[in-house]
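# nightly structure sweep
# worker-07 picked up a monomer target from the shared queue
# config: single-sequence mode, recycle default, output format = structure tokens
# input follows
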Amino acid sequence: MKILGIDSSGLVAGVAIEEDGKLISEYMIRNKLTHSQTLLPMIDEMMHTSKTSKEEIEAIAISEGPGSFTGLRIGAATAKGLAYGLGIPVIPVSSLLGLAFNLRLAGGVVCSIMDARRSEVYYGVYEYPETEAIPQKLCDEGAAPIADLLEKLAGLNKRVIFVGDGVPVFCDTIREKMGAMAQFAPEELRYQKASSIALIAEMLANEGGACEPDKFAPKYLRVSQAERERAEKESQLAKS
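# output follows
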């Protein structure tokens, strides 16, 4: 099965092509351009360079979130538009699971953290049993203050490897609370990789994880800042 993977959930815009568990090509970029400026040109260039025709693509793997609200919407629109045009399904993959998959050879407990602002993180906690290709969830993915997450992790009493764009933001706090029980993914594995999304997607497709494009929607895990501010204003007006 040949899959086009797309990840625009964070700072990195990435696209990849994989087939039958083998990575054919991957492009990623991290600069000041918006994902709407980079995704389609990257896909076109990657398809051309790898000599892959659009008709060969059998599914679109997309990072479903959580992450940047704007980035997720851009990725969703790109994936759905391509899937509609080609008449193929979409395979949603958690962006947090994708980050954890970057460290699949490390084993043990992996905690994906994405900076959610206001001292909060989007998080997912996983463990790699030796027999599992996809890590096992140790808790539901969520959004919480970093202090609450670290308290939850302390109860595991295990070494934890942290991955994601929350690492450079909260590494000092993590070291202070967890000491030698905390380790951090290296720079080259720290951020989202479309190849991880595509490889996971093929495994999920075999378990019925694909859906029609119109059934797919991003998962934000919390309301946007604009929605929070509007709710606060409405609450203040109601009290006045």
